Amino acid sequence: MNIESQRLAQQAMAFVLAGGRGSRLMELTDRRAKPAVYFGGKTRIIDFALSNAVNSGIRRIGVATQYKAHSLIRHLQRGWSFFRAERNESLDILPASQRLDEENWYRGTADAITQNIDIIMSLEPKYILVLAGDHIYKQDYSLMIQQHVESGADVTVGCIEVPREEAKGFGVMHVDEKDNIVAFVEKPADPPPMPGHPDLSLASMGIYVFETDFLLQVLTEDSADSNSSHDFGKDIIPEIVKNGKAIAHPFSRSCVMTGLESEPYWRDVGTVDAFWQANIDLTDFTPELDIYSHDWPIWTYSELMPPAKFIHNEEGRRGIATSSMVSGGCIISGSMLDQCLLFTGVKTHSYSILQGVVALPHVEIGRNAHLTNVVLDRGVKIPEGLVVGEDPALDAKRFRRSPGGVCLITKAMIDRLDS
After folding, report:
1. Is 204 marked within a binding site?
2. d(CA 165, CA 240)
3. Among 172, 206, 266, 203, CA closest to 15
4. Which among 81, 20, 25, 22 is positioned nearest to 50, based on CA atoms?
5. Which burial class, exposed, middle or buried, applies to 300 when counting CB atoms under 10 A from its CB (0-12, 13-18, 19+)?
6. Could you tell me which of 259, 281, 46, 11 has the C-alpha nearest to residue 148?
7. Does the annotation list 292 as a binding residue?
């Protein structure tokens, strides 16, 4: 971050789109929006976008919520209430609330901003940074804003470099040597390569920078178009690519690597398999994502909890954890854990064996339970002697078994075992 990028960040507002359900996470999003899903032992997914904004020097933030937003709003109130109005700082929670008409919901990502134009105008930001609230990554947004200003673009689009084969599932940018976006192609069968990198393509990250006046003009026109779906990826960005100046900003130019990372880290934890893998990856000796650095902290709401405790030291009944992350308030009582990630307040009882378990807050695991490659939703109580991960057919009958062989277990699923 340099002085010029810092100055520009202070003139910007971040608008986080956090209304999506994330249906591919199955029952994990039955009671909460995807941005509110837990990640990494103590944080929520949305904390990464918000922390990036704060660490980039952006102090005016709006969060648009929609689907089952209670837990997300409560998290923002508890963990993100440190902004001070007298320092021109703010975090506004913006639920869909029939602000402009009698429709209850935001009609699309662009409409979520359109319905809050008056709030944006009252803050008078010169630049608007539009963010998705459901990805895991560390990025200095101020560098992206600086490129936007220096290039004179109408929109700058954050892009992630992905192998061409994987790009078939993304919106892909076709760019020239000067980062101009020549075409925007949604989920192409043959993704266009990056200049000079024939094996890579640039996929949209859902991150956009606009000058505020330009964006409000575009949104006003889009709102009046009855044929529009009022979405950035489907309507706004393709229109600007066609009739204006759209610039690509590769993630590698502004990703934050704070010591442990060997390459840019960005994950869409949008499936049960991806969610489980990204959490378990944090238990590696050298994880691909460094969450320990004080140079780029991930801010969150931290519950007041005592330290984790490991008890019993008898043969076959020792509280042991190897290659694992164990959060505050956990009690590992005579259990063996390997490559597990436990959130706050998890309790495991004697003779239980856990391998590859991601346990969300306040889970309790009964005696003699054997769990392998499992995600346990918040508050689940595993009964004594339950075995999961050894019989795929039986697991699929009782729980949600993913294509990758990970079992998602919720309280409702456990209740059905007793009925």
Report:
1. yes
2. 27
3. 206
4. 81
5. buried
6. 11
7. no
The closest of 354, 305, 315, 2 to 143, measured between CA atoms, is 2
pLDDT at position 259 is 73
Q: Over the stretch 69-80, which tens digit does the pLDDT of each residue have?
A: 899 999 999 999
The predicted-structure confidence for 8-42, as pLDDT tens digits, reads as follows 999 999 999 987 777 889 999 999 999 999 999 99
Token pair 């795929």 is at which residue?
392
pTM passes above 0.85: yes
Q: Is 187 annotated for ligand binding?
A: yes
Q: Is 19 annotated as a binding residue?
A: no
Give me the DSSP letters along 366-382: -TT-EEEEEEE-TT-EE
Of 355, 315, 309, give the one whose Cα is nearest residue 333: 309
314 annotated to bind ligand:
no
Helix (H) or strand (E) holding 415, with range, is: helix 411-418
Question: Quick one: pLDDT at residue 212?
Answer: 96
In which residue are the tokens 């209304």 written?
A: 19
Could you tell me the CATH superfamily of domain 309-418? Hexapeptide repeat proteins (2.160.10.10)
Lowest mean pLDDT among 21-35, 103-117, 315-329: 103-117
198 in Cβ contact with 174 (< 8 Å): no
Residue 205 tokens read as 């990250």
**Do 234 and 261 form a contact (C-beta atoms < 8 A)?**
no
Task: Let me know: does 308 contact 325? Beta carbons within 8 Å.
Answer: no
State the Cα angle at 51 between 321 and 84, rounded to 5°: 125
355: left (phi over 0), alpha (psi -120 to 50) or beta: beta
Which CATH number describes the domain made up of 3-283? 3.90.550.10
Q: What are the structural domain ranges in the chain?
A: 3-283, 309-418
User: Per DSSP, what are the bridge partners of residue 183?
Assistant: 174
State pLDDT tens for residues 247-271.
Answer: 999 999 999 998 778 899 999 898 9
